[in-house]
Amino acid sequence: MNKKLLFEIGVEELPARFIPGAMRHMAERGEQLLSAARLRPQSVEVSATPRRLVLSATVSAMQPDQQKEVKGPPVKAAYDAQGAFTRAALGFARGQGVSAESLYRAPYEGGEYVFAKVEERGRSALEVLAEVLPELLLSFSFPKAMRWASYDIKWARPIRWIVALLGDQVINFEVAGIQADRQTYGLRFLHPDPISVPDASQHERLLSEAHVILNHEERYRTIKQLVQEAAAQRGGHVDENDEALFREVTDINEYPSVVVGGFDPEYLKLPVEVIITPMRLHQKYFPVYQTDGSLLPLFITIRNGLADEQGNVRVGNEKVLAARLADAAFFYEEDRKIKLVDRLPRLETLVFQEKLGTMRCKAERLQRLAPAICRVLGGSAQECATAERAALLSKSDLVTNMVFEFTELQGVMGGHYAISDGEDPAVAKAISEQYRPNSSGGALPETVAGRALALADKIDSLTGYFGIGSIPSGSQDPFALRRAALGVIAIIKEAGVRVALTPLIKQAYDLYGGDVQFKNDRSTTCSLLDEFFRGRMRSALTEDGYRYDLVDAVLAGGELDPFDFHTRIAALDRVSGTEDFLTALAVFNRAGNLASKATTDSFDRGALPEEADQQLVAAYENARQKVTEALHRGGNGNGNGNSNGDGDASTSNVTTAIQALAGLREAVDYFFDTVLVMVPDEKIRRSRLALLRSIVALFDNLWDWSKIVI
Question: What CATH number corresponds to the domain at position 428?
């Protein structure tokens, strides 16, 4: 028989950013523990509000009986010289409740032991859950945790109540001085008194009556509908793709109602980012847009409770936003009185990193690195000059009032102030794009100069931190270097240009000069970053759905070039199941078995006496010419430069190369069927091995075939 399990952890308000991770952990760890306890969980569901985490499931009322093997003493200790049971064996059998005659021998970790098969009767789920649920509660890990009272446990926020029911029965346990029972609570201000839950199946209904929408997705859909309808009623719309804000608002409310407020239209003269940043990030308001994309002097927010019939909540929120916007307007006007170029001396007082110098030093490095990268990206002389000027001014907005107050606007305000200063709009655009992408899947730079500056900024930071030995480990990445590396990869992929990163890393290292005392020399830093970038590429490509072995094959060698990696993995993925590919792989494996014994790939054709030798040489030379021509057309050679083929063209060229490699099959088979490679004659043996190594080297132009699993 199955029963409904309800487990609710009631807490003081959780930070919204803790809730998604806590829900994932409760679902995954909860199902693991219930399964390990042999309670056969079904329909495991997790919900959350700011004041509670809830797991519900259907579980067996009783554990099933099970038979388990128990290891006893070694055989040599279990039997005496005459083969009779020793006291050790008899004691083991007695302790397990079985007869000595039922013991049996079995190997274990290189030895032989006696074992007993023991019947274990299942316990009631009520008894088992009293052990499992406290373990689940104590297994949570939060970005920040706290202790309270005199309890020795740490949790995100103090635990205030626990509901633990199996059907209509309370599961008896205690954690942090809280006894599990059937008392829950509704919306704090409307339902302060405890609510008794008679049965697990009635929990969600009772909370709904107490103004709590428990289901996380239902609350999310309700909020989205309320916000969209409120905007439409006023002739506008909200950004429906602002998933982060919708999710955050979902996680800070239990019973949402909509509030619409306004602000002085005079503030619409400010840059749009200055208006919506305090709205979204500080107040959790939804900006309202007109059909042409311009802002309306309105905002929408969500109240945790009943509708704001008296308008008091609206008025309070309008006052808060008015103060924010008044500050922003003042900062904006004050900042425009000093040009970005005149702020450069103040950057000497702003530290980039204690061991890596000031922001002024960083700007000067970027001034040299950005135009070099711009040239690699194929930028014109004008675009490279734009990148150089933008790099010089790129960090000046860090010492403005606006960015000091709203750090999220760094770069963005630099772009606006550059326009105000009379700088070239292209320079302003590049400055505004320098931090992109600022999140996974975020907007990428759109201009060549912007890409160059964004790449320079990230490569400079990565090189500096790796040079001083500040390398991410485990989950620790305080300087967001993984995000920086993924940003480099995304920008280069989007640009569609071959970019060898190692020369740029070397240049970035040299630009630090002798003023910085690096822990790692240039060669070590490049090696560490090569491994780091390949690791990020591996994760990104695997998440994109590519097979792990194909990813490993592409990343195993060659230039550190993100666009080339993307091009080759796409091509490899498309051709990996074709007959020519499998034939080529067979050629590689057969030739590679002995090629590893070669000491050189330089062979003497005149030293190869057999017809099979000469046929293989001719086949190799023909394949080499075709492979070289195919890969040259596809832009797959090493070095920097624009790719002159799209994904389909690249696949076509790779297909041509693979067909050429597959064409070696007949000559390779005839060679191995006819001649002996490891002959006594050293000259012949050396040339045959070198020929095989030359053939394998042809395959290496594409990827590491030894990594591919069939």
Answer: 1.10.3210
In this predicted model, which residue has the larger pLDDT, 685 or 446?
A: 446
Decide if 382 is inside a domain.
Answer: yes
Per-position b or e across 541-559, b if 16+ CB within 10 A of its CB = beeeebbeebbbbbbeebb
Is there a domain that residue 132 lies in? yes
Three-state secondary structure call for residue 605: helix
> Using CA atoms, how far apart are residues 697 and 692, in angstroms rounded to an integer?
9
* Rounded Cα gap, residues 345 and 355, in angstroms: 20
How many CB atoms lie under 10 A from the CB of residue 150?
6
Chain segment 122-156, per-residue pLDDT in tens: 899 999 999 999 999 999 999 999 999 888 899 99
Q: Is 554 within the bounds of a domain? A: no
Q: Count the neighbouring beta carbons within 10 Å of the beta carbon of residue 146.
A: 11
Share of residues in the chain with pLDDT > 70 (%): 97
Q: From the CB of residue 121, how many other CB atoms can be counted at a distance below 10 Å?
A: 9
The pair phi, psi for residue 523, each rounded to 5°, is -65, -45
Q: What is the pLDDT of residues 354-412, one digit of tens each?
A: 999 999 999 999 999 999 999 999 999 999 999 999 999 999 999 999 999 999 999 99
Residues 388 and 497 in one domain: yes
**Do 327 and 405 reside in the same domain of the chain?**
no
Q: Are residues 396 and 527 in the same domain?
A: yes
pLDDT of residue 89: 93
Specify the CATH number for the domain of residue 656.
1.10.730
| % of the chain beyond a pLDDT of 90 | 79
Which are the contacts of 648, defined by CB distance < 8 A and separation ≥ 6? none
Residues sharing a CB contact under 8 Å with residue 488, sequence separation 6 or more, in sequence order: 455, 458, 459, 462, 501, 533, 562
CA separation for the pair 430, 415 (Å, rounded): 8
Query: 426-462 burial by CB neighbour count: b if 16+ within 10 A, else e?
Result: bbbbbbbbbbbbeeeeeebbebbbbbbbbbbbbbbbb
DSSP state of 13: P
Indicate the residue among 156, 178, 209 that finishes a domain: 209
Distance CA 504, CA 522 (A): 12
Over residues 94-105, the mean pLDDT reads 91
For tokens 């302790």, the residue is 95
CATH of the domain at 190: 3.30.70.260
691 vs 14: CA distance, rounded Å: 67
One domain for residues 511 and 444: yes
- Same domain for 196 and 170, yes or no, is yes
Q: Are 115 and 186 in a shared domain?
A: no
**Are residue 181 and residue 267 in the same domain, yes or no?**
no
Number of domains composing the chain: 5
pLDDT score recorded for residue 658: 92
191 and 222, same domain (yes or no): no
Q: Are 551 and 542 in contact (CB under 8 A)?
A: yes
The helix or strand, by DSSP H or E, that contains position 66, with its residue range, turns out to be strand 66-74
The answer to pTM > 0.90 is no
C-alpha–C-alpha distance, residues 661 and 624, integer Å: 8
Task: Please check whether residue 702 lies inside any domain of the structure.
Answer: yes
Instruction: List all residues 6 or more positions away from 687 whose beta carbon is below 8 Å from its beta carbon.
Output: 603, 604, 605, 607, 608
Task: Please state the length of the chain.
Answer: 710
Closest CA to 293 of 359, 238, 342: 238
What 3-state class would DSSP assign to 225? helix
- C-alpha to C-alpha distance for 512 and 485, rounded to whole angstroms: 19
What's the pLDDT at 441? 82
Q: Which domain does 666 fall in, by range? A: 564-707
